[in-house]
């Protein structure tokens, strides 16, 4: 597994009332295969997740992936760390399903024919081949989320960061996407309000008020978080 490290990272944001701190000074070393970030709305989970591939930059401190610094090696880090957004519409760009996966493969497969073949292979892997020529707008929420994940996985990242990947899905599709994430050979960091999904991880961090409040084996962190909610 890769080593994701936050070294005394602080994140701030400008607001009309002045600068606010959205992640207090945090140091972490993440080496486990499956890591969950749990905590209430607005606690800082997405901010922490976004730091991992440079979608958010720290005001101070350093974020690294193995020997790469996210601030200076952003391009390489983004190649290795795939990011899946809560709302798949924000990452599905092309008109049809297969074209969307082909877009993900533009850097690794030069010819259109190779790209199409590889994209069909990716779709088959995730049981989406029957939808290849369907408009991305005609997919169900679950199909769209799976397609977004397939697009991320097509680039063969070492790490997948998923920000509330099951929030918009019904029970069956949430389970399908959750099962897929938990079966990936990659390292997975997932922000989630789905505590059953969090419990399936190796480690969980409970984030509250811009800080890590509890960090440990997923079962222990989730139990502590559940107890706090009552
Ligand atoms: N660019 C920004 N400018 C101002 N405030 C921000 C910015 N980004 C995040 N915040 C604030 O920082 C806090 C943490 O946001 P973040 O999205 O990380 O929380 P979260 O734990 O992922 O929440 P949720 O569970 O609702 O998705 C929130 O109060 C949010 O409003």
From TrEMBL:
<dbReference type="InterPro" id="IPR050095">
    <property type="entry name" value="ECF_ABC_transporter_ATP-bd"/>
</dbReference>
<dbReference type="GO" id="GO:0005524">
    <property type="term" value="F:ATP binding"/>
</dbReference>
<dbReference type="Pfam" id="PF00005">
    <property type="entry name" value="ABC_tran"/>
</dbReference>
<keyword id="KW-0813">Transport</keyword>
<dbReference type="InterPro" id="IPR017871">
    <property type="entry name" value="ABC_transporter-like_CS"/>
</dbReference>
<feature type="domain" description="ABC transporter">
    <location>
        <begin position="4"/>
        <end position="226"/>
    </location>
</feature>
<keyword id="KW-0067">ATP-binding</keyword>
<dbReference type="InterPro" id="IPR003593">
    <property type="entry name" value="AAA+_ATPase"/>
</dbReference>
<protein>
    <submittedName>
        <fullName>ABC transporter ATP-binding protein</fullName>
    </submittedName>
</protein>
<dbReference type="InterPro" id="IPR027417">
    <property type="entry name" value="P-loop_NTPase"/>
</dbReference>
<dbReference type="InterPro" id="IPR015856">
    <property type="entry name" value="ABC_transpr_CbiO/EcfA_su"/>
</dbReference>
<keyword id="KW-0547">Nucleotide-binding</keyword>
<dbReference type="InterPro" id="IPR003439">
    <property type="entry name" value="ABC_transporter-like_ATP-bd"/>
</dbReference>
<comment type="similarity">
    <text>Belongs to the ABC transporter superfamily.</text>
</comment>
């Amino acid at each position: 597994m890769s080593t994701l490290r936050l070294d005394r990272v602080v994140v701030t944001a400008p607001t009309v009332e002045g600068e606010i701190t959205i992640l207090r000074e945090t140091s972490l070393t993440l080496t486990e295969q499956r890591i969950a970030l749990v905590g209430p709305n607005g606690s800082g989970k997405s901010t922490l997740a976004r730091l991992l591939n440079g979608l958010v930059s720290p005001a101070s401190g350093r974020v690294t992936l193995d020997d790469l610094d996210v601030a200076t090696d952003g391009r390489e880090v983004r190649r290795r760390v795939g990011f899946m957004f809560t709302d798949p519409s924000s990452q599905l760009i092309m008109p049809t399903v297969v074209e969307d996966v082909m877009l993900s493969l533009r850097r690794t497969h030069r010819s259109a024919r190779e790209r199409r073949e590889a994209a069909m292979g990716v779709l088959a892997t995730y049981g989406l081949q029957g939808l290849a020529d369907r408009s991305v707008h005609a997919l169900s929420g679950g199909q769209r989320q799976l397609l977004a994940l397939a697009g991320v996985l097509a680039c063969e990242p070492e790490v997948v960061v998923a920000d509330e990947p099951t929030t918009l899905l019904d029970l069956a599709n949430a389970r399908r996407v959750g099962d897929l994430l938990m079966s990936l050979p990659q390292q997975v960091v997932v922000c989630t309000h789905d505590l059953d999904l969090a419990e399936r991880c190796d480690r969980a961090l409970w984030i509250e008020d811009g800080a890590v409040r509890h960090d440990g084996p997923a079962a222990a962190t989730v139990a502590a978080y559940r107890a706090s909610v009552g």
